[in-house]
Amino acid sequence: MKPAFLASAQPEDTGPSNGLLLRLLSSDGPRSRALAALLVVIVLGLAATPFLFGGSQPLGTAAKICVFIALAASYDVLLGYTGIVSFAHTMFFGIGGYGVAIALDRLGPTWTSVGLGLLGALALSAALAAAIGLLSLRVRAIFFSMITLAVASAAAVLASQMSTITGGEDGLSFQLPHQLRPAFRLFAEPVLGLSINGRVLAYFLVFFAALAVFLVLLRIVNSPFGRVLQAIRENEFRAEALGYRVVAYRTAASVIAALAATIAGGLLALWLRYNGPDTTLSFSIMIDILLMVVIGGMGTLYGAVIGATLFVLAQSYLQVLMGWANTALTGVPVLPDLVHPDRWLLWLGALFIISVYAFPGGIVGHLRRRH
Amino acid sequence: MPEPLLQLEGVHTHIGPYHILHGVDCAVPQGGLTVLLGRNGAGKTTTLRTIMGLWQASSGRIRFGGADIARMATPDIARTGIAYVPESMAIFTDLTVRENIVLAARSGPVDSARLDWMLGLFPALKKFWNLPAGYLSGGQKQMLAITRAIAEPRRLLLVDEPTKGLAPVMIRSMIEAFRALKQSGETILLVEQNFHAASALGDHVLVMDDGKIVHAGAMGALVADRSLQQRLLGLSLDAHQ
Amino acid sequence: MSEFPSITTEQAQTPLPRSKTDWLPLLLVPALALLALPFVGNPSSWVTLTVAGLAMGMMIFLMASGLTLVFGLMDIINFGHGVFISLGAYATLIVLGPLAAWGKADSLALNLGLMGLCILVAMALTAIVGALFERIIVRPVYGNHLKQILVTMGGLIVTEQLIHAIWGASPIPIALPETLRGAYVVGDIVMERYRVFAVVIGLAVFGGMQLLLNRTRIGLLIRAGVENPEMVEALGYRIRRLFVSVFVAGSALAGLGGVMWAFYRQTLTAGMGMEVMVLVFIVIIIGGLGSVGGCFVGSVLVALVANYVGFLAPKLALVSNILVMALVLVWRPEGLFPVARR
Q1: This prediction's pTM
Q2: How many CB pairs under 8 A join B and C?
Q3: Same domain, B15 and B65
């Protein structure tokens, strides 16, 4: 008997024209006009950022969005699709960042270093994720959350203490391979009014790598393997009774998520030409990822796209807005403190709680329901 | 005819997506022992759990001593005077035998006459008085579970398969204990698969199949009528005899 | 309790099976302490380290005990437990503000009075916030671990931010009362006074909890509820009410732990609760989720290891805890004292 959940989901609105696109999306389209439009705007916007905006700040924000889309999507494989909460995702993110940073710092600014650093990081992440999974998921899924929290905090301490290798609290700054440096020019002439220098190339490297990670993850969650994960999430005991080794599947999901997070960490380090505890390892980034995935919508990778984009934009621009409100409310008791620009996390936290209660599907779930 | 102590009218129970009880109608008269028989999966345990409020009836009425208890919470149902011995016995293994009984006596210390009477039913419990109940054997755990149910006077005992998995000698002493309980005037609703035990103890019998009561009557009549047994309980019955 | 006649008559001749107390995990603590002695070398440093470890263990125990009980009783995991620690710590400011003179006075009575007031205010505040937290954050997601983790994490974020909004975002230094500073010196053994104070408070609370759990009806109910909440209800007890009181008491204990931790660090930050939660989680996993005794042994074990390793190989201190946890889980996957459940 073939369990119902293994039957592949039927795409709802397949036209002949978008067949290729849908294949790229593993037949898991947005299934909502508003969501599709939003996604198109985000992808096109990210692709066009170097052409549309001058200056380094918009490009930096866009690169950060790309990295966090990949990171949040990989986290959703765990949280949304497998139904387990990890607090070690930033550890893998950090391993990727440090892998690239240490290799480029020690072995010189070559592509071989990038490759070696990333490979080493991927191997370490896979081994750690497998060890944590096998040790904790064997007994209770809830152990996993606590143990990942403990291991991640130990990793953060370790990274800041092994300063000879990791640069400690200061982190590591390093040189990029020749082609990614600002002085490099791909073409002699500007394209669409933009001179394609190493910075722009680095941006597109981040953009396309993040896109590839996202599409691969989308393929994985829509594969038979992904459906078993969802079956386990829905009813652990039933899946076990049907003969699926729950621990093995969950551990595999955790390894996959860890690998994707490692790549995202490597990308961020490449973009920043720097890696340190605050950019990839800190617990506050872990909280950020949670907020992105839950507010965007768990259990649908598109939620990660929406969540990461909104969050990074909010991080950059909500504080400005709150600054105005803070000034406007001067003299009123208590309120100015609550809308102080530094308190933006307070409101996102409240939004997060409300999301979990009232919109378990997050923004994506909400958009799809209206459709 | 006096009003029955417990009466179920059209009780339906759903557990998750599954519809288990399909309109149970039955009555348990005051005094005596009523046996609830039926195949595995007929809904006997669900019936007891629904009475106890551990699963909420989705519709129907459960009248106990004149009041409808179908919508009440489990602790309040227990406080109307119903005691429950689940199939798993649900002994608190971390607590001592004494502590298990102390907890069962809600209104305070058990008076020594009642204690003597209870331990007279199950002398083995005395030996393990201050040991964690986890060390008891299966039969002793069953004794403790029943003692817990009668630690204070209750109006109705719901007991789910007390002989399950017990050695024959243990089953005999269990039957003796239930006889003594009957004599002391307790009203008991007993789920039992062992027809020998059921026929030895029962005054009244209810037979369930597919979430409904398919037969209700006197135990003696069922014992006397082999063809009725055959029809209601099938071959499984002969195996037990 | 003399509710029952003791039974000693005719059963006396049959030998009773002995109650098999699980000694092995209990022996771990002294074994570890003795094992560390030759490595540390100097007996006086060893005493200092052991006292420091015990003090830290007691504080972790205070913070962890409520969490493990709440989990055992209602299968609720509260990732926001750390805010009660932070709140308890910040609550000392309410007392230290107006009564700063009590702390500066060189009078044991005034100093202890000040500590007592801090503890009282902190426990009252965290009990109230705990009740609100239970009502608003936890109750709607009963029975769903995933949502519990998320929502309690959300509660943590919001409450931490509220602490920032009320008391400011920068770290706040606080001073130990005069007579609790310094150390007792016996020969060449140095024991910091505050650590001894922490050990006394921790032991008192542990003793109190043991009495409550083993000698009172409430305690019996809690222990029974940890094992089988459904049966406790079937016996006619409203477990919901019991749960709320345990949650509130657990929050208040975390608040007490927060006060102790605050004076130990002598600096307040809103994130201090979450930082120590790492240890708290390790401890309740090691001890066995739901077991108060295991939580106590686990706390002392983790704290001793951290102190010995911190002395011998400082860089490995936090990693050593992970190692201890991994070893315990390999030995006993459910923790040192697994709690029987249904």
Answers
A1: 0.83
A2: 91
A3: yes
Per-residue pLDDT tens digits for B170-215: 888 899 999 999 988 899 999 988 888 888 899 999 999 999 999 9
C-alpha distances (whole Å) from A17 to each of A23, A31, A215, A218, C297 are 11, 16, 20, 21, 66
Instruction: Please provide the CATH number assigned to the domain covering A29-370.
Output: 1.10.3470
Q: Kindly state whether residues B64 and B97 are assigned to the same domain.
A: no
CB contact A139 to C (< 8 Å) = yes
Q: Are A125 and A132 in contact (CB under 8 A)?
A: no
Q: List Cα–Cα distances, C79 to A196, B121, C109, C273, C277, in angstroms.
A: 48, 49, 37, 11, 8
As averages over each run of 10 residues, the pLDDT of chain A (371 residues) reads: 42 55 81 89 92 84 96 96 93 96 93 95 97 85 87 88 87 89 82 83 95 96 93 88 90 96 96 91 89 91 94 82 79 74 82 86 84 51
State whether C11 and B126 contact (CB < 8 Å): yes
Could you tell me if B74 and B131 lie in one domain?
Answer: no
What is the distance in angstroms between the Cα of C243 and the nearest Cα belonging to chain A?
Answer: 20
pLDDT given at position A337: 74
Q: Where are the alpha helices (DSSP H) in C137-238?
A: 145-167, 193-215, 217-227, 229-234
Residue-number span of the structural domain to which B110 is assigned: 90-154
Residue type, A345: L
pLDDT at C340: 59
**Chain B contact set for C340 (CB, 8 A):** 93-94, 134
Sheet holding B204-209, edge to edge: B82-85, B156-160, B187-191, B32-38, B204-209, B212-218
Q: Would you state the pLDDT for residue A263?
A: 97
Please tell me the predicted confidence (pLDDT) of residue A1.
39
Best residue in A353, A354, A355, A359 for a mutation probing chain C (most C CBs within 10 Å): A353
Chain-chain contact of B126 with C19 (C-beta, under 8 angstroms): no
B96: DSSP letter: B
In this complex, which of A140, A343, A357 lies closest to C161 when CB atoms are compared?
A: A343
Q: Which amino acid is at C97?
A: G
Last residue of one domain, picked from the residues B128, B154, B180: B154
Probe site for chain A from C147, C153, C272, C283 (most A CB atoms < 10 A) = C153
Residue C322: list chain A partners with CB under 8 A.
150-151, 154
Residue B233 has pLDDT above 80, yes or no: no
Q: How many residues does chain A have?
A: 371
Instruction: Quote the minimal CA–CA distance from C8 to chain B in Å.
Output: 9
Which contacts of C42-46 are long-range, i.e. CB under 8 A and separated by 24 or more positions?
A: C43/C189, C44/C187, C44/C188, C44/C189, C44/C190, C45/C311
